[in-house]
Amino acid sequence: NIKVKRKTNGGRTASSGINAEYGGSECPKNSELVKKLVRKGIPPEHRGEIWLELSGAKELKDRYGNNGEFYPRMIEKAETAGVPSVLKQIEQDADRTFPQHTLFSGPDRVGTSRLTRVLKAYSVRNPMVGYCQSLNFVAALLLMVTGLNNEEDAFWLLAAIVEKIQPSTYYSSSMVDWVLDGRYVFDGLLQWKLPTLYGHFSTYGVTQTLPLIISSWFMCIFANSMPSETMFRVWDTFFYEGNKVLFRVSLALLQQHTNEFLKCTDPGLLYNMISSLPSKAYDAENLMEFAFNGLGSFPHARIDHQRDTWRLTVLKEMDEIEKR
């Protein structure tokens, strides 16, 4: 069982971190047992609370939240001092986010108004990012888990994703870190972990178009492309193990269908097959097994090294584009 440990101080109950209970004993957050339990899935009824702890959002909330006063202040600031073009884009995107979901449909569309508030508030908390398309799906998913009455928790979880878990410029206007991951780091990991498949994709020109496919996987964290049960399992591990989970899961999706890909020699069909992979991932257990036990070791140092190796190349490419 995995839960948030509680402590009592002067009649007030507060969180003191994540603990795993096993055989009557407790294990701290940073333990192999907690990692194993998170990979098996967090119980839905505890997911929002545990995500706050795992992600660092609770730490941000405690440090900057000013006992619940900060978030309302950001909502007010967005209305009085927000960038008009950013606010307009948020309203447009919120209006078309998960229109089939009960929280974001119906005559009152309460979920849409809460989503708009969270995104607007965050745009003024972090003006270096402001708003990036894809954050609407991320924030909407967070509201589904925290509940509409806990939109402040969704706000701080969004802050943790952008500021602590994803690389620093994933959602900025330059998107340098995403370009690094999408064009170079993922390419290197695919060549390392699935060399036969990489060779096949290279032969038919698919490696060049992979960044277009996986951009929504990484930027939206599969929120708009994967069956909910599987997607929640991915998010559980994402909050505990970080951004490298997205590489693991993406490679596992490809690995699971290697034989089908090797039989296909039509570049257009290969593109469509890859694009549809997340939507077919109904077997969460199977995908997680492939992702965490079928790819071997996955040191974060290797990802960091790839980023360091290619960063200057990406910056030079962007500088050339700006000069044109």
Total number of beta strands: 3
Q: What pattern of helices and strands is seen along the backbone?
A: EEEHHHHHHHHHHHHHHHHH
Structural class: mainly alpha
Sheet bearing the most strands, described?
3 strands, antiparallel
Radius of gyration: 20 Å
User: What is the residue-mean pLDDT, rounded to a whole number?
Assistant: 92
- Globally, the shape reads globular
Spans of at least 5 consecutive residues whose pLDDT stays below 50 are 6-16
Strands ordered across the widest β-sheet: 1-2-3
Question: Approximately how much helix is present in the residues?
Answer: 55-70%
Total helical segments: 17
Tell me what portion of residues adopts beta-strand conformation. Answer: 5-15%
Termini separation comes to 57 Å
